[in-house]
Amino acid sequence: MDPRRQRLADARLYLVCGDQPDAFLKAALRGGVDIVQLRIKDGDDASILAAGHRFKAIIERHRALFILNDRPDLVAAVDADGAHVGQDDVPVAEARRMVGSDRLLGMSTHTPEQIDAVAHAELDYIGVGPVNETPTKPGRRAVGLELVRYAAEHAAVPFFAIGGISTLNVGATRAAGGERVAVVRALTESAEPESAARELRRRLTQPHEVTVGTT
After folding, report:
1. In the beta sheet, which residues pair with residue 14?
2. For residue 125, what are the β-bridge partners?
3. Cβ-count burial of 61 within 10 angstroms (0-12 exposed, 13-18 middle, 19+ buried)?
4. Which pTM was predicted?
5. Nearest residue to 49 (alpha-carbon basis) of 92, 14, 80
6. CA atoms within 13 A on the CB side of 144
7. Which H/E stretch holds residue 188?
């Protein structure tokens, strides 16, 4: 397995964020973030490239993976590790052609049918959600833990549960089979992103608790 895909396989905590200050990014990475996705939905190429180069330098120093949202055409320009696309963005085959075979390609999924379709696509991972209602995806109905359970049983590639996940509910997500999670507000709105990331990672990697019943 090549180094990027090995690091993807080992990853547990994935941060999705806009153009954040250096101090925030470094704190999140120190706390245990494995992958950072830069998501600038309405920015022009120049602003995405400027943020991308800055993100790349910081993320590389922490030996994490850097993913660019929605812009596979700019991945090579910022030397990102890959791209992430939505169901209505660039088609997977075209995105794969843009990023090449050596870089990573992920996609958002929201239904069992979309998860099943991954088996026939050139994808390295998927996002599954939104698990909970979240303002980062207005108008998108929460899929709940049932889709996480479905992905745990059927996904052909590694998946990250996403959508309103925090330290308060990550345990339930993990219990449903979501061993990897992607977060936004759990870190971007935290007063202490390093501590928040460390706690999320602890809850994702600690041994599963076994409850012994009494008679």
Report:
1. 35, 182
2. 106
3. exposed
4. 0.94
5. 80
6. 1
7. helix 185-188
Q: Domain 3-201: give its CATH architecture.
A: Alpha-Beta Barrel (3.20)
List per-residue pLDDT tens for the chain, 215 residues long: 899 999 999 999 999 999 999 999 999 999 999 999 999 999 999 999 999 999 999 999 999 999 999 999 999 999 999 999 999 999 999 999 999 999 999 999 999 999 999 999 999 999 999 999 877 666 668 999 999 999 999 999 999 999 999 999 999 999 999 999 999 999 999 999 999 999 999 999 988 654 444 43
Helix axes 193-205, 22-31, angle to 10 degrees: 30
Give the C-alpha separation, 155 to 152, whole Å: 6
Of the candidates 192, 198, 196, 165, the one whose C-alpha atom is nearest the C-alpha of residue 181 is: 165
